[in-house]
Amino acid sequence: MKYSHIKTIFKKEYSTYFNTPIGYIFSSFFLLLLSFLFFYGLGGNSFWDLKISSMEHYFMWIPILFIIFIPAITMRLWAEEERSGTIEILLTLPVKDYEIVVGKFLSAWAFLVVTLGGSFLVPLTILILGGLDFGLVFSGYIGTFLLGGAYISMGLVISALTRDQITAFVVTLLFCLVTFLMGYQPILQFFGNFLGGILAFFSLAQHFESFRMGVFDPRDLIFFFSFILLMLSLNVFVIRGKR
Amino acid sequence: MLEVRNLSRSFNSKIAVDQVSFSLKPGKITGLLGPNGAGKTTTMRLITGYLEPSSGNIFYQGRDIQEDLQAIQRRLGYLPESAPLYYDMLVSEYLEFMAEIRDVPESNRQTQIQKMIEVCELSTHLNFPIAQLSKGFKQRVALAGTLIHNPEIIILDEPTSGLDPNQISHIRNLIKNLAKDKILILSTHILQEVEDVCDEVIIIHKGKIVANSSVENLHSGFQVLIETNAEESEVKKIFQNEIFLSVELDKDSKPKEGFFSYIISLSEDKPEEVFRVLAKSNFVVREMKIFRKSLESIFEELTRG
Asked: pTM, whole model, 2 decimals?
């Protein structure tokens, strides 16, 4: 593995988010919507209704918003290379397939971190209004970061399987939705204990829950990392299949 | 030397390249010719490692390229058809990216980039987004990215398609200058380009090689044209020796004042045999010359059906 290759691919992909307006549009949209939902909410559980200086509900909205935001940042990664034909250049460079996959994955992940960095005003506001449990905030952000990484790795595989960005967006959105709903209580109750338990285990949102509650469980950490690793390997496999 | 041995590739049981073998030497420009869908692009993609062969091997300097693909790809420059580029990058960013990812050593990088800017005449548009460039410029940027690491093997898929005559001649001159000590293969369906640029030609049809020779040899094919007043049956009667493969009336020229043109094919390069036979006959002969087929007619013959 050559880090310089990963770095070069990373730089190229990362700068694309800032060379085109789509990156700015989606991160502003994501941050605005997230702050709006947290402060004004839907159905009486907004920050002002609850009158608790906690970010628990803030992190509750994140998996839901990720369902729209993540597909938007991953849809381009492979599908655009395929559509424009640059994939032929990329795959004949003296670079290993997994170096490209890792570079692309890290660029999207880094873009997510930058976007989340823009949300620092929310904990700051709460801190000013009345104390903040830093442990909860920290674990919430770690969970967000891992959940985002898992969704991105999934979106990357789907982008590699599709030829245009719109299809990649829609299919990734569907998959994110499914993995979210697999951890949704009413659905789990419908499937009963055994089947519901299995579904919940594979749901990304379910593993995010403990981070949101401030529980730092290594099992969840391992789950997210295994999921990401599995998806990246699958991606390399898909690219090899194209040859 | 690059050697392709019994190379085949199929897509979902449809054979695109079928048992193809040839070798390429440095310093020679080889034209890969064929109708659309003949397997030119697939052959090129196999050599670059973009596709893996279903069977067969490619050797470079005696080593199978699949053994260490990256090692070969480091010495190879490939310009795909229609010159794909990252449209949101600036020209300078693209060259920087290509130099970096192609492992051009950092100490040498700026010199190489500068050299490509000069060779491909890009200095006026370095800070333009690639999306805004004209087609000719895009082609040159793509070519600069292909050559930035000074590759030993250069593979160009239809490098002049869609360009205007000035741009075409610029790219062709560039290609001719490049080839001095490199293995260079280009695909095209412009026959004039082959005559203008290439030393060797490989014609491929339905995935198989139907001709592989120097451009010069492909033309000749040991034929003699004669113009005489004799009827076809009489001419056929005197050319009976086994060296004469066939005698045909030249369909392209009309009979003039009772004289007809015939094309006599020989099995060896001995046009004097035709003269010897004619000298013994009592035909009136107006013209006798070595007949050179046009590349168009050779191409048509080989790729018919």
From this structure: 0.87
Question: Are residues B2 and B47 in contact, defined by beta-carbon separation less than 8 angstroms?
Answer: yes
Dump pLDDT digits (tens) for B183-207.
999 998 888 888 889 999 999 999 9
Sign of the Cα torsion B85, B44, B2, B210 reads: negative
Picking from A14, A1, A4, A8, the residue whose alpha carbon sits closest to that of residue A236 is A1
CB contact under 8 A, B84 and A5: no
Query: Within 10 Å of residue B136's Cβ, how many Cβ atoms?
Result: 17
CB contact under 8 A, B88 and A9: no
Give the C-alpha separation, B134 to B138, whole Å. 6
Nearest chain B CA: its distance from A99 CA (Å): 11
ipTM, interface predicted TM-score of the complex: 0.88
- Pick from A4, A85, A93: CB nearest B82: A85
Chain A hits for B91, CB-CB cut-off 8 Å, are none
Q: Which domains does chain B have, with CATH numbers?
A: 2-218 (3.40.50.300), 221-302 (3.30.70.260)
pLDDT band (50, 70, 90) for residue B305: low
Cα–chain-centroid distance for residue B154?
A: 13
Q: Which residues of B touch A19 (CB under 8 A)?
A: 88-89
Across the interface, whether the CB atoms of A94 and B145 are under 8 A apart is answered: no
In angstroms, the CA A157 to CA A222 distance is 20
C-alpha–C-alpha distance, residues A61 and A57, integer Å? 7
* Residue A135 pLDDT: 86
CA–CA min distance A144, chain B (Å): 30
User: For residue A167, which amino acid is it?
Assistant: T
Domain boundaries, chain A: 3-242
Residues of A in CB contact (< 8 Å) with B are 4-5, 8-9, 11-12, 15-16, 19-20, 84-86, 88-89, 91-96, 243
Q: Which residues of A touch B103 (CB under 8 A)?
A: 4, 94
**Mean pLDDT per 10-residue interval, chain A, length 243 residues:** 92 90 88 87 72 77 91 94 94 95 97 92 84 85 94 96 94 93 80 81 84 85 95 96 89
CA distance B273 to B276: 5
Through-space distance between the first and last CA atoms of chain B, rounded to whole angstroms? 33
CB atoms A94 and B103 under 8 Å:
yes
Residue to test with chain A: of B42, B54, B69, B86, most A Cβ within 10 A: B86
Query: Per-residue pLDDT averaged across B205-221, rounded?
Result: 83
**Helices of type H across B148-249:** 165-178, 191-197, 215-220, 232-238
Q: How far is B176 from chain A (nearest CA, A)?
A: 23
Neighbours of A60 (CB within 10 A): 17
Which residues lie closer than 8 Å to B83 by C-beta, 6 or more apart? B138, B139, B141, B142, B143, B159
